Amino acid sequence: CGIFGIWGHTNAAQLTYYGLHALQHRGQEGAGIVSTDGEALRALKGEGMVSEVFTPEKLEKITGTAAIGHVRYATAGGSGIENVQPLLFNSTTGSLAISHNGNLVNATQLKGHLERQGSIFQTTSDTEVLAHLIKRSGYESFEEKAKNALSLLKGAFACLVLTEEAMFVALDPNGLRPLSVGKMGDAWVVASETCAFDIVGAEFVHSVEPGEFLIINDDGMRKERFAYPEERSICTMEYVYFSRPDSDIDGINIHSARKRLGKQLAKEVHIEADVVTGVPDSSISAAIGFSEQSGIPYELGLIKNRYVGRTFIQPSQEMRERGVKMKLSPVRQVVNGKRVVMVDDSIVRGTTSRRIVALLKEAGATEVHVVISSPPIKNPCFYGIDISTSGELIAANNTVEEMREIIGADSLTFLSVDGMVQNIGRTDPGSKCGHCLACFTGEYPTNIYPDTVLPHEK
Ligand code: 5GP
Ligand code: SF4
Ligand code: MG
């Protein structure tokens, strides 16, 4: 998912729309904005893409000088309009709205606890527990209530909470998801990715730190914390696949990091080939890096039909297969009679690689060597990226040689864990340099409970 918030601007909802548009790659299943004029909170939400949900006429109705927004990528919780965020709770003792990116690992426990106390949940989203915890907290001020509630959450959460009086910003103690703060004149903006600042003309100020709690209101911004930071564990897939190439996470540009991953791959494997091609869009940077390092020319061997959504997000396997076919086409002139290196960022179920190898061979490629700019994904993700059950993960059940055979490639190479971590370039203390590597290594940065719900199991 992607989140965006703004405080102190007369066009708050309009700017949130632009911000969400820049974050569209983070979720295409639903989008919403909640704005406030200091008196009430108003919501506009719908299923589908940002441009489908919001029209200029509708946006004009949610006036105000502050707003938070969300683009939804369904992981925990089913699809359906009730799960589209921001979740809005009206109350005579003060309304609130929440945008959440990530996935809580103790949502089932918290929900059971709250239900026994009389809470009734309206959604199947893990995010709703935060609202109940805030409202039921015994503390006096909203700030203290929110901090107390946040301290009970476990897992991944980059959150924005909006009330009539303030916008609150929080990041989980491991810092699993990216979250940045920017400024636009006197207005404050917060976004999952810095590419959203560029589109609204805001300047990056700083990243939100793990465990931090920011209070933004008409007096400015105040930094507090709801928890001590734990070992930094930012999602590595944000660098490898999820974030946009023009975003920076903690000062590291995503395109540049991916290019270094491609270069490192070319150092780890030697392949005799005629052309290098990347799977658009997320693997182009790595393919350019591989080409530069190996000396094999980079070519546009595959083109993407940009009017088809991300294949991964299609619910059924059949739809996913068709999705790949509609989405990618080989450039026959480039690959015919050639030995092709095909770079992709990751293999999850193996659908994309298998289809592309077949497409390239049908178009006349004599050999197809698949190189992947991340290590094999062997474990499910509990933190909000849709790498679900082990049964679906091709690398959890097959050796690299078996995978090569399944996808029909002439060779298959994955990047090493060390090669990946060192070339992304973070310098946090600890052996993992600030990364979550759980889907590769099985070492989860938080507790995982017996009743922790995997994405798509709810
Ligand atoms: P597969 O086709 O092997 O199941 O999935 C890998 C492909 O899906 C890659 O091309 C990658 O760019 C894309 N992809 C889409 N969404 C995701 C995601 O959430 N995680 C990962 N690792 N890859 C994804
Ligand atoms: Fe990211 Fe993998 Fe960690 Fe999930 S398990 S947060 S996908 S690095
Ligand atoms: Mg891809």
Automatic annotation (TrEMBL):
[4Fe-4S] cluster binds at C235, C381, C436, C439. Pfam families: GATase_6 (PF13522), Pribosyltran (PF00156). The active site is at C1 (nucleophile). Gene3D superfamilies: 3.40.50.2020, Glutamine Phosphoribosylpyrophosphate, subunit 1, domain 1. GO terms for molecular function: 4 iron, 4 sulfur cluster binding; amidophosphoribosyltransferase activity; magnesium ion binding. It catalyses: 5-phospho-beta-D-ribosylamine + L-glutamate + diphosphate = 5-phospho-alpha-D-ribose 1-diphosphate + L-glutamine + H2O. Binds 1 Mg(2+) ion per subunit. The keyword Transferase applies. Residues 1-219 form the Glutamine amidotransferase type-2 domain. GO terms for biological process: 'de novo' IMP biosynthetic process; purine nucleobase biosynthetic process. Its cofactor is Mg(2+); [4Fe-4S] cluster. Pathway: Purine metabolism; IMP biosynthesis via de novo pathway; N(1)-(5-phospho-D-ribosyl)glycinamide from 5-phospho-alpha-D-ribose 1-diphosphate: step 1/2. Keywords: 4Fe-4S, Glutamine amidotransferase, Glycosyltransferase, Iron, Iron-sulfur, Magnesium, Metal-binding, Purine biosynthesis, Transferase. The keyword Plastid does not apply. Its EC number is 2.4.2.14. Mg(2+) binds at S282, D344, D345. Catalyzes the formation of phosphoribosylamine from phosphoribosylpyrophosphate (PRPP) and glutamine. In the C-terminal section; belongs to the purine/pyrimidine phosphoribosyltransferase family. This is Amidophosphoribosyltransferase. It comes from Planococcus rifietoensis. The gene is purF.
